[in-house]
Structures are given as C-alpha cells and as structure tokens.
C-alpha cells in the first residue's frame, strides 16, 4: 500500500472517499462491543488499549478516541504519506501512537508490539490487500489480550447480476496492489481458521457500487 497511497492519493484520500469512509467506519464502530471491552481482564487502572491495523489517515482512530476518552490508541500503516495525514489529524491528542509497518504475512510477526497488548484490534477496508489474510489474522491473535476482540470490515465480492469480474479488473488497473475481495462468509471462514470465534457478522451497503461486510470476533 505504500506505493499506491502516497503523494496526492494520500493528501486527497479523506475527500475522495468521504462518503464511503463515513459509512464503513460507522458500521465498524457499531460492531465494537463496548461493554465487553471494559470487562476485558486487565491490571488495576490500566487503560483500554486499541490498535487500528492499517490505520490510513487516522479517521477511525479519531472516532475511537471520542468513543473511548481514556483509551490508549495505536495505529500502524505501511504508507508514510498516509501516516503523515494521520499525524496532522491527530496532532492535538497525546494518546495516539503511530508506527509505520506492514501487514504482509511475512512481516506480521515483526510488528513492534508485545504479545497480549491490545483489548481491541480494528482493521478496515484492508482485507482485499492482504497477501495471506489467514496468516495476518493469526499474527494479530498474539497481540490480543484474553477476552479481547477483533473488528474487521471490508468491501465484498459481489455476485450476479453485478458484473464483478470486469469491475475487479478495473480496480486492479487503478490500484495494482488490490489482491482480491471476499464475501462475508469467506471472511468468516478465514477468521475462524486463524483462531477466532465469530461473535457477530453482517452485510451492509456503502453505496451503489460497494457492498460491504463487518465481523466481530474473539479468540477461541
């Protein structure tokens, strides 16, 4: 993603994808189990810790900060230019910790976090980029605390009569790092194979062209 979301694509991302981001990030936030999050076992007075994997320009982190005013928030993204935009958006808040890093299957184990560091991990609009989503999710399992939760969201592969094959061909022409899109059921199976138990899942629309899914899961 570092080679695509750079320069103008990074600086204009929030404007270009404003409506899409609002719908997908709202769906993601609706799937966070706030009660479960605060009941997650942790040391006395230890704040909730949240990681947004592939945080992009920091839009979801900003929303999470409002939802969890005492939380420590971490974001990691492969694109330095997207992180620059995130730093600008989050400049007035000391609770944010942004890091450059890759979610590729070969590097997921090298993320700069200790095991069982996070009570919540989010990953939005990124599944279609992952070279091996099962391996990436398996790597994320090591970062969750006991009782922690994962919320993952992305756009879905669509079925007939929607012309998905030429549509995805066009996506790859515009964004060569696109790997493939998954249906919700496929994404659920990948989560389960990676060691997660599905708590909730649903489909939703993010516009005429985009059908999406969102999943909340916990460690088995």
UniProtKB/TrEMBL annotation:
It comes from the Bacteria. Pfam families: Methyltransf_12. Signal peptide: none annotated. CDD domains: AdoMet_MTases. Residues 51-150 form the Methyltransferase type domain. Transmembrane segments: none annotated. Coiled coil: none annotated. This is Methyltransferase type 12 domain-containing protein.
């Amino acid at each position: 993603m570092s080679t695509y979301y750079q320069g103008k694509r990074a600086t204009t991302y929030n404007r270009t994808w404003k409506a899409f981001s609002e719908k997908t990030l709202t769906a993601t936030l609706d799937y966070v189990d706030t009660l479960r999050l605060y009941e997650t076992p942790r040391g006395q007075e230890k704040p909730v810790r949240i990681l947004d994997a592939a945080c992009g320009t920091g839009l979801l982190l900003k929303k999470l900060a409002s939802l969890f005013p005492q939380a420590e928030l971490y974001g990691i993204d492969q694109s330095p230019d997207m992180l620059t935009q995130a730093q600008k958006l989050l400049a007035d808040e000391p609770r944010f910790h942004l890091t450059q890093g890759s979610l590729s299957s070969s590097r997921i184990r090298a993320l700069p976090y200790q095991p069982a560091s996070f009570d919540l991990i989010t990953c939005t609009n990124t599944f279609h980029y992952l070279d091996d989503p099962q391996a990436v999710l398996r790597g994320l399992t090591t970062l969750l605390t006991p009782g922690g939760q994962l919320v993952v969201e992305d756009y879905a592969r669509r079925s007939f009569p929607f012309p998905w094959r030429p549509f995805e061909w066009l996506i790859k022409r515009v964004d060569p790092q696109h790997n493939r899109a998954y249906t919700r059921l496929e994404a659920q199976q990948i989560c389960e194979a990676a060691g997660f138990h599905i708590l909730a899942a649903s489909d939703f629309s993010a516009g005429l062209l985009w059908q999406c899914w969102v999943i909340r899961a916990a460690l088995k």
